[in-house]
Amino acid sequence: MKPIAIFRHIAHENPGYLADFLDAHGLKWTLFCIDVGDAVPTEVNAFSGLVFMGGPMSANDNLPWIPQSLSLIQQAVAADIPVLGHCLGGQLIAKALGGTVGKNPVKEIGWGEVHVSANKEAARWFSQIRNFQSFHWHGETFTLPSGAAHLLASRYCEIQAFSLGKHLAFQSHIEMTIGMVNQWCVEGLDEIEESASSPAVQGVAEIKQELSQRISTLNHVAEHVYSQWIKGLKA
Predict the structure, then answer these.
(1) How wide is the angle at C-alpha 126 spanned by C-alphas 210 and 118, nearest 5°?
(2) What single DSSP character describes residue 136?
(3) DSSP 43-85
(4) How does pLDDT run across 113-170, given as a tens digit for each residue?
(5) For residue range 42-78, what is the model confidence (pLDDT) as tens digits?
(6) Domains along the chain?
(7) Closest CA to 69 of 50, 46, 55, 48
């Protein structure tokens, strides 16, 4: 099978648990480090799937690789090659498919419960899971593209995930590992402190509380979701 292309937009927002999952399933993947100048491929047919990770930038920013990424997503959807996005990656998918990206009512940083929508598509992706504690770090959100199914919502963000056929976009982060959470708390400490007035922003101590158990539970959710997504990989 062709490799899965994974796009990284900043060093500490790496594939995390997704990389562990793909390795465990013997699936090849190639990392494109946009943050150090790797070019976005112009053709999608060399890959079995595309994954876009997070980043502090906006999908609306005037950056040369953003329209290139949007074009690649559109190519993939037209070619029936599955696309998966986490946070910024989900926003890129939404924008590529005709949705809009804009400011969320409040900034979300830390752990927060998300609820699974009551529809067939949500049941396909999440099975019997009805809610779980996801990890959040965002100030923007997206609208649903035409034809997309709403999958997740939280108290502070109405659209936490959507799917369109085999394509899947998350606003929240299901790819987290213990190491990633610890590193983000260092890299993003200033943002945490500057955003402390938001009701959806947790301090470092609260973020790290019961971290091992929270990550274990989140990995279980991600395992189920990723297992569904790889069923759509194109040989």
Answers:
(1) 110
(2) E
(3) --TT-SEEEE---SS-TTS--THHHHHHHHHHHHHHTT--EEE
(4) 999 999 999 999 999 999 999 999 999 999 999 999 999 999 999 999 999 999 999 9
(5) 999 999 999 999 999 999 999 999 999 999 999 999 9
(6) 4-232 (3.40.50.880)
(7) 50
